[in-house]
C-alpha cells in the first residue's frame, strides 16, 4: 500500500465513509471542532485505577453486562428442564467463554464434588470398573477444540421466522478447548467385548439423560472430559466430568457422566425415541440423527447487533460449523440468495469446531437480505429453508440447519425474516 | 489393544497401581466392600438441580474457588502498581480464561467506556487520525491465539529458589484468542512515512506506559485488539482496546491504548531505560530485549499440585512457549537434568502460543528432581539456571527463562529447589 513516489503509504479505507461517534469524517482529527476526549485530560488518565486484588476471578466490565446467556420464558414450562442461549451476536473469534456458553438441562444443573464423583464402566467387559476423579487424571489426556450444538438449535424456525436475534435462533452452541481422556482408553482398560457394538451412557442427574452411542464412534474421538478452556467445567456444563462427542448432537454429550455400559444393542431410551427423533411429513420418524449438518449464521449485523454507522466500510461476520468435518467455504449474500460472495475464513476450518468468517465489504446504505451458507469438507452445502422443508416437512424440532435470513434496513436495524 | 484370541481388549493401565480415593485397586469395582456412592441413590440423582436462569454469566463452581489469580503481598509496595499470577498449576490445555489471566498494572486498572474511547495515530503520517471504537470495528479483523508473558515472569528466581508454586514462579503468562485489526492497516490508513522506523505507543491510564516498537514489528503481526476468547477484554486487560505484540514482552502490549506516534527514533522512555532493561554482571545494561526466549515449566506435579496417589501411572504435564516461533520439542527429566525423555505435545506447536506437553509415565514412588526444557523452531534450547547466570550474571529482573526444578518427595509433595 506504499506509494513509492512520495514515500508515504495510504489506504484511506474509511475516507469519505459515513460519520461515526465523534462526528468526524471517519477517523480524521478535526482541529476546527476539537474533541474534548482528545484535548482535555480525562479522569482515567489523571488518577489511579483498581489494584490487582480487586477481583481474584475477573468478571466482565459493567458496560458488557448485556453479553450474557438468556432464556426465552415462553419456550419451556419451567427453567429446570429448559435452555438458555449463548450471546453469539456479541462475540467474535471462535472460542466461547464458559461463562456465556449455553446451558440445557433436563432436571437442572446438579452439584457434584470431585470427591463424590464415580464413573462406572460395565456390561460386556472383561472387568467392570469404577473410576474416581483422581483415577481419570492418571490416564493420558488429549486437548481438542470442538463445538457442542443442541439438536434443537434453530428448531423454532421450522415453521417460520420466530425469534428475533442470532442468540435465540442459533445460540444453542458453544465451542471450547476440552481436556480429557479418550473413552477408548477407558473401554480398553475395562476390556470391552468386541462383540459389543454399542455403549449406553448416562449422567448422574435425576434425568440420567441416557443415550446409545455406536461403539465405532465411542472408540474414535469421544472424550471423557474434565476441563474446558483450561479450567474445570462449570457446574452447568457437567462438573466435574462430561462426555464430549465431537460433531454429534449436544444431548449425547452427557453431563455428570456416571455410567458407560457396553452392549450389543442400543437401549432405545426416551432420549432417542420420543425425543431427539424427527417426524417427517409422512409421519415416519428419522432416528439416529446424530451428526450435526453443516450450518452457518451471520452474527453481525443481526437483530441484536444492528449497523451503528452509515454506508461505507462494513464488516459482515459470522460462524460456520459441521459435524462431519472441517468447513471449507462460506458464502455470503446481501440479496436473499440471488448472488453470493465468498467470505474470508479467519483460519482454515478445523474438524468439528467453529469457524469464524468475515466479509469485508462496502455497504451502499440500502436494505439487505443477508444470508450465509456453509460448505464442509464432504462437499455438503447448507440448504435453504425451502429445500429443507421439502425433504423433512414441517413436523421436525431438531436438526434445522437451513440458511438464515436477516432483513437489514436502511437505518441499520435488522430482523429475522423468511424469503421464498 | 484387542486380544484377538478372546475377543476382548484390555490395557490394564491402572492394574496393580496404588489405591486412590475409594480404596480400591485402581478403578476396580469391589463387591466385598461396596462403595455407597455406587450402591446408594444420591441426592443429586433424586432431586432437581439449578434452572437455566440461575446465573446469566456462569461462574466457577464453589469447589474451584482456589483456582484464582493471586498476588504476593511482599513483592510490591501496593496493589496499584503490582502484579498477580495466573493459577497455571490448576489449568490444563492451552487457553487461559480471562477470569484467571494475570494482571500487571502500573497505575491501576482504569474504567473506560467504549463511547469515551479514542485512538490517535500521529507523528510522521500523511494525515493524523483519531479513531473511535466504532471506527475500529469497520476494518478487516484477524483472530490469533498468542501468549502474553510479563518480562518479569520468573524474575524472583535469579537469586535462588524463592517462590513455592508454578503460579508464582511462572504465572505472569496467559494465552488467549485475540480478535483485532492489524496495526499495519491503521498505519496505512494514516499514511505512515516510510522514513519512520519506529512507533511510540501509549495507554490512556495515568502511567501511560509508553513504549517504542520498531516499525518492522508494527507492520508485521501487531494487533489492535478488542476481543479475547471471543468476549470484550476484561477491564484489567485493557478494555476496550489493547495492543497485542506477539512473542514480545507483556509490557509492550499496551492496555487502553490511546496513541500511536510514527517517529524516526525510539523515545527511550522510562519503561525501556530504567525499567525493562537487564543489568549484566559488568554493569552494562542490555536493552531492546523484546522477544521472550523459549521457556517451559512443569505445572503438575508442582508445589501447588502435589501427587495425590502412590506409585504407578503418573501424568506429568506442563506448558512451553517461545517468542521466536513455534515450540518443536519439550524434554522432561525426573533426575535433575541427568537424563531426559521427550514429552508428547498435545498439538503441534503454534507460533507465539502456549503449547501443552504431557509425559505419560510410571512413577516408582521415589523422590524426583523434575525439570522440563523447551526447544523452539529456531533450534534454541532452554538453558539451565547456571548457564543463564554465566551469561547474564545475577543483577537481572527480567527475561529469566531458565529450566525450573521441582523436588517431588516420596509423599507426593513438591517444592521449588535449585540444582547445581
TrEMBL record, chains A, B:
TM helices/strands, residue ranges: none
Domain of life (superkingdom): Bacteria
Residue ranges of every copy of the Moybdenum cofactor oxidoreductase dimerisation domain listed in the record: 286-405
GO biological process: sulfur compound metabolic process
A Pfam family hit: Oxidored_molyb
Keywords: Metal-binding, Molybdenum, Oxidoreductase, Signal
Domain (Oxidoreductase molybdopterin-binding) ranges: 111-268
GO molecular function: heme binding; molybdenum ion binding; molybdopterin cofactor binding; sulfite oxidase activity
Cofactor needs: Mo-molybdopterin
Span of the signal peptide: 1-31
Identification of the protein by name: Sulfur dehydrogenase subunit SoxC
Organism, scientific name: Litoreibacter albidus
Amino acid at each position: 500500500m506504499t506509494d513509492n513516489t512520495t514515500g508515504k503509504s495510504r489506504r484511506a479505507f474509511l475516507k469519505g465513509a459515513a460519520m461515526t461517534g465523534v462526528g468526524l469524517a471517519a477517523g480524521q482529527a478535526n482541529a476546527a471542532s476539537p474533541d474534548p476526549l482528545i484535548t482535555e485530560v480525562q479522569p482515567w488518565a489523571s488518577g489511579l485505577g483498581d489494584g490487582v486484588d480487586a477481583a481474584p476471578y475477573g468478571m466482565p466490565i459493567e458496560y458488557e453486562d448485556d453479553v450474557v446467556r438468556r432464556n426465552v420464558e415462553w419456550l419451556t414450562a419451567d427453567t429446570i428442564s429448559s435452555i438458555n442461549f449463548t450471546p453469539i451476536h456479541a462475540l467474535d473469534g471462535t472460542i466461547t467463554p464458559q461463562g456465556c456458553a449455553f446451558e440445557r438441562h433436563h432436571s437442572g444443573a446438579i452439584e457434584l464434588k470431585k470427591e463424590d464423583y464415580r464413573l462406572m464402566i460395565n456390561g460386556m467387559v472383561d472387568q467392570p470398573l469404577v473410576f474416581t476423579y483422581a483415577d481419570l487424571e492418571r490416564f493420558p489426556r488429549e486437548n481438542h477444540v470442538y463445538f457442542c450444538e443442541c439438536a434443537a438449535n434453530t428448531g423454532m424456525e421450522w415453521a417460520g421466522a420466530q425469534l428475533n436475534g442470532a442468540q435465540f435462533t442459533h445460540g444453542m452452541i458453544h465451542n471450547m478447548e476440552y481436556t480429557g481422556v479418550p473413552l477408548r482408553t477407558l473401554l480398553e482398560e475395562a476390556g470391552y467385548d468386541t462383540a459389543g457394538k454399542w455403549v449406553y451412557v448416562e449422567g448422574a442427574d435425576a434425568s440420567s439423560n441416557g443415550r446409545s452411542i455406536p461403539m465405532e464412534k465411542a472408540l474414535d474421538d469421544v472424550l471423557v472430559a474434565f476441563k474446558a478452556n483450561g479450567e474445570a467445567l462449570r457446574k452447568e456444563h457437567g462438573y466435574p466430568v462430561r462426555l464430549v462427542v465431537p460433531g454429534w448432537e449436544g444431548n449425547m454429550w452427557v453431563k455428570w457422566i456416571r455410567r458407560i455400559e457396553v452392549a450389543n444393542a442400543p437401549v432405545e431410551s426416551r432420549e432417542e425415541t420420543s425425543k431427539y427423533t424427527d417426524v417427517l411429513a409422512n409421519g415416519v420418524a428419522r432416528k439416529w440423527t446424530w451428526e450435526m449438518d453443516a450450518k452457518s449464521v451471520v452474527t453481525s449485523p443481526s437483530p441484536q447487533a444492528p449497523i451503528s454507522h452509515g454506508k461505507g466500510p462494513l464488516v459482515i461476520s459470522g460462524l460456520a460449523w459441521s459435524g462431519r468435518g472441517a468447513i471449507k467455504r462460506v458464502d455470503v449474500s446481501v440479496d436473499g440468495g440471488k448472488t453470493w460472495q465468498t467470505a474470508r475464513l479467519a483460519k482454515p476450518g478445523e474438524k468439528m469446531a467453529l469457524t469464524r468468517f468475515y466479509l469485508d465489504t462496502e455497504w451502499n446504505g440500502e436494505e439487505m437480505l443477508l444470508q450465509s451458507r456453509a460448505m464442509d469438507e464432504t462437499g455438503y452445502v447448507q440448504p435453504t429453508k425451502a429445500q429443507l422443508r421439502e425433504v423433512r416437512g414441517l413436523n421436525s424440532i431438531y436438526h434445522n440447519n437451513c440458511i438464515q435470513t436477516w432483513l437489514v434496513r436502511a437505518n441499520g436495524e435488522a430482523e429475522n425474516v423468511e424469503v421464498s
